[in-house]
Amino acid sequence: MKILVTGTEGYLGSLLPPLLIARGHEVLGVDTGFYKVGWLYNGTEVTAKTLNKDIRNITPEDLQGVEAIVHMAELSNDPTGQLAPNITYEINHLGSVRLANLAKAVGVRRFVYMSSCSVYGVASEDDVTEESPVNPQTAYAECKTLVERDVKPLADDDFSPTFMRNATAFGASPRMRFDIVLNNLSGLAWTTKEIKMTSDGTPWRPLVHALDICKAIVCALEAPRDIIHNQVFNVGDTTNNYRVKEIAEIIADTFPGCKLSFGNNGSDNRSYRVSFEKINTILPGFKCDWNAQRGAQQLFDLFSQIHMNEDTFLFRGFTRLKQLEYLIRTQQIGQDFFWNKQ
């Protein structure tokens, strides 16, 4: 199968293509290059040929012969959405819907969209399912719900969208991110020997390892059409719902000599437990291989191997907001987030 993967120079995007290529698929990447500077370790044997292009500029010619698209190239995470809400909507919502329409028009048969469990926001139920009402709290999460809303009606006999609502990702990637909770706390534990939380750590977060997300994508691409056609899947495992406090405790136990403390700030009202029964029941071949303990140990082993230091941990290339602010400040990208010609 010829598969176009958007965001191949990102955290998940650098891990997925080697897995697809190893399974005999032909992979073409697309990435605008915002995070090209962030490379933590040499962890992949092959990389996909990648078009250096903004998803807003993808043309029908770019999609010739493509049978499936895995779309993950959006402005990621809540702080980035707050930096430029209008551009977040332009890229994440309108850009993604445009790509889906373009894909359908040129005959792409499968469209796997990377959504997020953050669409649940503040959940009133014990374990939210794919049928639960969404309650997005940020521009980033709102855009995910809008893309799902607008792409679902495109489904027909020739075009099958699938929506993967990923839990909060964690784990090692060559294009590392230190702005997601388990990775960030692990970096603090390694570089400062202390996790000093301002919050009380009571909110719930579902976690899923980056490689388990990639596994879910591979399973969705290779599953019979009737299983994935216009379906929403929460991606993760129900046992991997943790309170933030529990995540911190797991990391403190894994990183020797790390001191842990909590505050009384409860300002983060995002809290949700998620049921992952559907994906684990009906998507052939899917089962999570990782939990928070194993992920924390993976990061400890990696940091030991590469002798990671504080400068590396704090480097802008590994934090989405820092890198985008740098590109804007140095006028490498404009307020529209297109690259300026030098």
UniProtKB/TrEMBL annotation:
The protein, known as: SDR family oxidoreductase
Gene3D superfamilies in UniProt: NAD(P)-binding Rossmann-like Domain
Domain of life: Bacteria
One Pfam family it belongs to: Epimerase
Residue ranges of every copy of the NAD-dependent epimerase/dehydratase domain listed in the record: 3-236
Originating organism: Anabaena lutea FACHB-196
